[in-house]
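DM between two lab members

TW: hey, do you still have the Peptidase entry open?
JB: yeah, one sec
JB: this one, 87 aa:
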Amino acid sequence: MQKKLLTRQRLMLLPMLLILPGCASNLPAISLPPEIPPLPAPARQPVTPSECLPTCSAALMNERGSWRNSLTLPTSQDLPASAVMTR
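TW: and the structure you got?
JB:
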């Protein structure tokens, strides 16, 4: 009987011990993420010259896109290098 009573008291004490840290007066400090500093002047992109038209820039972007596609498209499947060549 005595042992059963002690076990019950210990089990009742356990939830109180788990709740106790939630009542702490000093809450943990939340630190803000570090700010990203601005780029130094030499690392910044230069201003677009006035003689560059928006259509010129758009054409360049299209040209770059076609270059990129030509580099990434799969090539035609030819015979493997180990295939027998006939004339």
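TW: got it. The CA atoms of residues 47 and 62 lie 21 Å apart. The first helix runs from residue 2 to 19.
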